[in-house]
Design a protein that fits this description.
Layout: E1 2-7, H1 14-26, E2 31-36, H2 49-60, E3 66-68, H3 71-74, H4 81-91, E4 97-102, H5 115-121, E5 123-127, H6 134-140, H7 142-146, E6 151-153, H8 163-169, H9 177-185
Length: 190
């Protein structure tokens, strides 16, 4: 199994690293891939594609079976999660590909590009936040409940850490030392 974790990673935090470790602990993953979204996707104030890629690379140093893909960063336009997962599947023939999402993505999942294709071809590892009752959230949503088998809910993960909080507070406890050094060296988020 290949686990893919997409996001802005602006910057990558200790929670992102802990999610990777949590997924690797609970699932039989041959590889875990961080997939940073391109600045083409969003108008939010993101650090450059280059800086976010470098911070992720620094954060995962020494983590076996973990890599960072620049695939979406290299795309001229945002193609959506479905296209990215198809391309990753094609490059890993015979391996099941799952996509890691935070629980906050569940209510708007039906609005994702090609949501029906996503749930029919892939499975999603849902990471809890704020100790939500994820089974109840899935059951209450018509789209999610119709595709309940597409979602793997992992137990016992809860982290209040978010990239936004780091950008607002610059709290060094929210990022790894390597990421903090990179942020300071390149004077990001100030």
């Amino acid at each position: 199994m290949i686990a893919v974790f997409g996001g802005a990673f602006n910057p990558p935090t200790v929670a992102h690293k802990a999610i990777c470790e949590h997924v690797m602990h609970h699932l039989d993953c041959q590889e875990f891939i961080f997939l940073p979204v391109s600045s083409q996707y969003t108008k939010r104030s993101l650090a450059s594609n280059f800086h976010r890629l470098q911070m992720l690379t620094a954060m995962i140093k020494g983590m076996p079976k973990v890599s960072v893909s620049a695939m979406e960063l290299d795309d001229p336009d945002y193609l959506g999660t479905y296209q990215s997962l198809v391309r990753i599947s094609e490059s890993h023939p015979g391996r099941k590909v799952v996509f890691v999402i935070g629980a906050d993505n569940l209510p708007k999942f039906h609005k994702w590009i090609n949501a029906n294709g996503l749930v029919s071809e892939f499975r999603f590892v849902v990471i809890n936040r704020d100790r939500l009752d994820l089974a109840a959230i899935i059951d209450a949503d018509p789209f999610l409940s119709a595709h309940k088998e597409a979602f793997i809910v992992l137990p016992d993960f809860d982290s209040p850490v978010a990239s936004t909080i780091f950008r607002e507070t610059f709290d060094p406890a929210l990022v790894t030392p390597e990421v903090l050094d990179y942020v300071k060296t390149h004077q990001l988020y100030r």
